Each structure stands twice: as C-alpha cells, then as structure tokens.
C-alpha cells in the first residue's frame, strides 16, 4: 500500500490524512512487538476492570481511597483504549493511515485521560494526607460529596485541556510530509508535521505540561512531606508501618506515571529523538497501565480480598 501524501493531499489544501511510521521493516520484529503489547494490553484491561468491579461490588471498599482507585482504574482503561488498538493495527497491517479527524479524536481522548490522571493522583495524595494527618476529622472532611467533586474536577480539567490543546494544534495547516514518526497522535510528533511557525503552539504545549504535570506533582510532594512529618512523630512503630504501607502503592504509581510523563513533555525540544520518544510512549501507555493494578492488588490486602471475592462470585455464577 502506498502511503505517500500525494494521494491524500490537494495542492491547495492541508493534509487530510496521516500515516503512522512503520516500526520495522522486519515482519518478525513487528509480530513480536504486537504480541508483547497485546498481552500487556489485555492484562491492563483485565486488571483495571477487576479492580473497578471489586470496589463497586464490595461495600467494605466504599471509602474515599477506594473511590479514587476505582476512578483511576477507569481512567487507565480509557487511556489505553484510546491508543493501543490503533497501535496494534499499525504493527501488523499496511493500513497504517488515520484521518485528520481520527487523529484529532485520538489526541483529545489521550490528553483527556492523561491530564485527568495527573489531577486524580493529586486528589489521592490529598486523601492520604487527610487520613494520616487528620484522622479524627477524616470521615467528615472527606465526605462523599467532596470526593465526587474532586473526581469531577479531575475529569473536567482533562476534558478542557484536551479540547483546548487538540483544537489549537489542529487549527494549523499540515503541508506534508504526512507520516507520523510515532505510534499514535501525540502532541510533539503532530506539531513536527505542521507548516510555518509553530513556536506558539510548542510554548502552549509546554505551559500546559508545566501546569498540569508540575502543579499536581508539587501538591503530591507537599502532601507527602506533611505525611512524612506526621509519621516520624508517631509513637508506635506499628502505626508508622501501617501509615507508610498505605502510601507506598500510590507513591510507586506516581513515580512511574510522572517520571515518564515529565521526561517526555518537559525536556527541551532539542533532546527529543523519535526512538526514545517511542520507547517512553510504550512505557507510559502500556507498561504503567499494566503495572498499576498489580501494584495496588499485591500491596493491599483489602483489594486482594475483594478481588478474590469477586472472582469467586463470578465462578459460582457460571457454575
């Protein structure tokens, strides 16, 4: 299949279709990567769906911490589903094209879920801060209404940023080439294909990245700074161990998500390379989403117990 821009572009118009660059000319490498990504994708979907289902169906987990965890699992499902299916198709098929509208849609949903997750991780850190630093007032302050508001704000911020960034980038003209040197319609590789001066758009992407990645991250750091100070003055070693164990899973997820995101969107443009960008993209779209349910289920007895109860009920129902 010929993927040249000439078949998709009139002389007087901007490019209407794009094509994802082929990962490798060797079919064996593409098939191996397809298999690995597919397995991780299925593991991510299964793990996150089971955690969300276990939390929703077990009344003992109807607490603020698990409410946010269920939201995180739903975000991870949307996050991976917005990117991975097209990525898998491009690996084993010559149909690697995507329309301008399809690319914009993918960018919007990817940005929506990614930014919402940034905000939700900050809300989860605030919840842990309230639970450890103000345990006597935790139940009243972290009410269902406040938790719902924090979740809605997280999703709303993601939606607004997704709409704004997508509209701003796709208001540009794309004169060719039309091949996206990436696995999906991420912001930097799409900007690289635009005609004319894109410095304002690049600045907007950077500013949004600073605000939506750095600001929640600073809130997380501040929350855990207060938590650490509170834990250090606890008289009971058992109390310190329990407090730290409830935060360790969240801290690990934050490190994985913010670490890969910061390297991708906050490093200077001159240091970007397609190979490294693709590797990072695989990490924060596939690997991190697969690891999150493993991290939370393995390090949390209540989640493990709820998962077993859910699976047991399913088995009995089928039997």
TrEMBL record:
Classification via CDD domains: 7tmA_OR10A-like (cd15225)
Record field: transmembrane: 31-54, 66-88, 108-126, 146-164, 203-222, 243-259, 279-298
A GO molecular-function descriptor: olfactory receptor activity
PROSITE patterns registered for this protein in UniProt: G_PROTEIN_RECEP_F1_1, G_PROTEIN_RECEP_F1_2
Domain of life of the organism encoding this protein: Eukaryota
Family note: Belongs to the G-protein coupled receptor 1 family.
Protein name per Swiss-Prot or TrEMBL: Olfactory receptor
Gene name per UniProt: LOC109260156
């Amino acid at each position: 299949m010929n993927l040249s821009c000439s078949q998709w572009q009139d002389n007087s118009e901007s490019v209407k279709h794009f094509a994802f660059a082929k990962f490798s000319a060797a079919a064996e490498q593409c098939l191996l990567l397809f298999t690995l990504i597919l397995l991780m994708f299925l593991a991510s979907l299964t793990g996150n769906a089971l955690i969300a289902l276990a939390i929703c169906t077990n009344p003992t987990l109807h607490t603020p911490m698990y409410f946010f965890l269920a939201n995180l699992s739903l975000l991870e499902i949307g996050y991976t589903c917005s990117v991975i299916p097209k990525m898998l198709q491009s690996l084993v098929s010559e149909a690697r094209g995507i329309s301008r509208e399809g690319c914009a849609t993918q960018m919007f949903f990817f940005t929506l879920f990614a930014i919402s997750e940034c905000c939700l991780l900050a809300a989860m850190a605030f919840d842990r801060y309230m639970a450890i630093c103000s345990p006597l007032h935790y139940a009243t302050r972290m009410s269902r209404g406040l938790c719902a508001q924090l979740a809605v704000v997280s999703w709303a911020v993601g939606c607004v940023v997704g709409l704004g960034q997508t509209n701003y980038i796709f208001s540009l003209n794309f004169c060719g080439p039309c091949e996206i040197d990436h696995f999906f319609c991420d912001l930097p590789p799409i900007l690289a294909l635009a005609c004319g001066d894109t410095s304002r758009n690049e600045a907007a992407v950077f500013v949004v990245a600073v605000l939506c990645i750095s600001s929640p991250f600073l809130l997380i750091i501040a929350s855990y700074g207060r938590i650490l100070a509170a834990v250090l003055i606890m008289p009971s070693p058992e109390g310190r161990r329990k407090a730290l164990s409830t935060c360790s899973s969240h801290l690990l997820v934050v490190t994985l998500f913010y670490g890969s995101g910061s390297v991708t969107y906050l490093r200077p443009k001159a240091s970007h390379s397609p190979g490294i960008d693709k590797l990072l993209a695989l990490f924060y779209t596939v690997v991190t989403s697969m690891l999150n349910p493993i991290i939370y289920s393995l390090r949390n007895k209540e989640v493990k117990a709820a998962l077993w109860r859910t699976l047991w009920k399913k088995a009995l129902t089928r039997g």
